[in-house]
Automatic annotation (TrEMBL):
Enzyme class: transferase
Membrane-spanning intervals of the chain: none
Documented EC number(s): 2.1.1.-
Protein name per its UniProtKB record: O-methyltransferase
InterPro entries: SAM-dependent_MTases_sf (IPR029063), SAM_O-MeTrfase (IPR002935)
GO BP annotations listed: methylation
Domain of life: Bacteria
One of the record's GO molecular function terms: methyltransferase activity
Length: 196
């Protein structure tokens, strides 16, 4: 990782910590993933050769940059979606500063609507870090857009276990998916899609 990108990520980490300590309303909190989660995602992208990555929940772009840096190394691309205008603007600025904006496509709006419009099997890896109560409703389209052999990674599997329980049970009960939870950061739930 380049020194300028490393410095930008450290700046965003500090901003996120200070911002979230001072602000209680969720729409203005950035709620970044942990650094070790970012490193884990970077390894997963490269190890699975995930050239087409979908991130649901851009926030200020911290996790997007870690995904994009890994995707760039393998000739890949990251598509990210965010509902909050405030966060979209922050992320766009951070993408410009990072030098990675050419491997990132930003979508404005609600993730469920985007998922409905996407083609079948168009992503190799989906990273889910958004409003957890929506995940169960999105599941049919998440399955549809993830290619066979593709990987779903969901943040907050242990930190918000109660909120994640219904979704984890739904995915774990699907015979086309093999799942596990990894104790990295706030807990990462992983599901890989086998053939139908």
């Amino acid at each position: 990782m380049s020194e300028p990108l490393q410095k930008l990520l450290t700046e965003l980490e500090h901003f996120g910590q200070q911002n979230d300590a001072a602000i209680s309303e969720r729409p203005r909190r950035v709620l970044n993933i942990t650094r070790d989660t970012g490193e884990f995602l970077s390894v997963l992208v490269q190890a699975t050769n995930a050239q087409r990555v979908l991130e649901i929940g851009t926030s200020n772009g911290y996790s997007t940059l870690l995904l994009a840096q890994a995707a760039q190394l393998i000739g890949g691309h990251v598509t990210t979606v965010e509902l909050s205008e405030y966060k979209l603007e922050m992320a766009a600025w951070n993408f410009e500063r990072s030098g990675l904006s050419d491997v990132i496509t930003q979508h404005r709006g609600e993730a469920g609507g985007l998922l409905e419009r996407l083609d079948d099997a168009c992503f190799d890896l989906v990273f889910l870090d958004s409003k957890r109560s929506d995940y169960v409703h999105w599941w049919p389209n998440i399955q549809r857009v993830l290619r066979v052999g593709g990987l779903l990674v969901v943040d907050n599997a242990t930190s918000h276990a109660d909120e994640m329980a219904a979704f984890i049970a739904l995915v774990s009960d699907d015979p086309n998916f093999t799942t596990c939870t990894v104790p990295v950061g706030n807990g990462e739930f992983l599901a890989t899609r086998a053939g139908d």
